[in-house]
Design brief:
It is a single chain. The longest helix is centred in the middle third of the chain and has 16 residues. Helix 1 links the parallel strand 1 and strand 2. The protein has 272 residues and is an alpha/beta fold. The two termini are 13 Å apart. It has one domain: TIM Barrel, CATH 3.20.20.140. Helices cover 30% and strands 20% of the residues. The structure holds zinc ion (2 copies). The site of one zinc ion (ZN) has 4 residues, from loops.
């Protein structure tokens, strides 16, 4: 069975020290069949380390070496692009020049601050902050300047990982109308969503919450991927089988793989 991890950061991201080879070995050890490196590019991010273009040439060279050395696992070249409205044009220009297998669109920053930093709470209650986060996600998926340049929307509900509240869970029932709007815009544009397992240990559930994955399916969503968001080798492939189970329970029979940014649907089944 196919077991993909489509969200991994290596030392080509500013916040990871993991060598790409270490990630590949960790993935193989867990039976992962496809690994896609998705390095950070958050142009305009308030933290300087994120505000830069990754070394895509270095990535390319490393990945082609690893593909030869480990032919039994598919290794993809991807990027995780942070949505910041002011730099969208520059971001789109950079992306258009590269050859990726897969591009993730992420909302990390809301009104200039990354949801992961404590200052981003700004004294807001959960409903206010989560609503503003979702409005920013809506802005990102409807920003036509970027539409052609990405494949899937990453970790919807990322703000839950900021752990700003006693209960950080982010289910569909909090904002049904806003979630429907976002999911419909994603589907309409032929994009997919990612099920990100890093929320399990930090936030309480996969991102997006399973109730949102079910709703995405009900609304006609079919493209769906899985990623661990690993920055360390011990997290590569983490909870990927659990994510497959969540997806199957939400009514999906297939998962999406991307090679050269072309989606391919493959059957999945839940392992008992
Ligand atoms: Zn992210
Ligand atoms: Zn990430």
């Amino acid at each position: 069975m196919v077991l993909p991890d489509y969200h991994v950061h290596s030392l080509f991201s500013p916040d990871s020290k993991m060598s790409p080879e270490e990630a590949v070995r960790a993935a193989i050890a867990l039976g992962v069949t496809e690994l896609c490196f998705t390095e950070h590019m958050d142009l305009g991010h308030h933290m300087e380390m994120y505000d830069k273009i990754p070394n895509f040439d270095g990535m390319e060279k490393t990945i082609s070496m690893l593909r030869k050395k480990y032919p039994d696992i598919h290794i993809g070249k991807g990027v995780e692009v942070g949505y910041i409205s002011d730099t969208v044009e520059q971001t789109a220009e950079v992306l258009a020049k590269q050859n990726f297998d897969y591009v993730l669109l992420s909302t990390h920053c809301v009104d200039g601050l990354d949801c992961g930093v404590p200052e981003s709470k700004r004294g807001q209650d959960k409903i206010t902050a989560y609503k503003r986060y979702l409005e920013t996600v809506y802005m990102s998926v409807t920003d036509e300047r970027l539409t052609a340049q990405y494949d899937c929307v990453s970790h919807i509900g990322y703000i839950a990982k900021g752990l700003h509240y006693e209960d950080n869970t982010f289910p569909y029932e909090l904002f049904p109308e806003l979630f429907d709007k976002i999911l419909c815009e994603i589907i309409k544009r032929g994009k997919g969503i990612e099920v990100n397992t890093s929320g399990i240990d930090r936030g309480g559930h996969v991102l997006p919450h399973p109730s949102i994955i079910r709703r995405y399916r009900e609304l006609g969503g079919r493209m769906i991927t899985i990623g661990s968001d690993a920055h360390k080798s011990q997290n590569v492939g983490a909870y990927i089988k659990d994510a497959v189970a969540v997806i199957v329970e939400a009514g999906f029979e297939e998962i999406t793989l991307f090679h050269n940014r072309v989606p391919r649907m493959v059957r999945i089944t839940k392992e008992d």
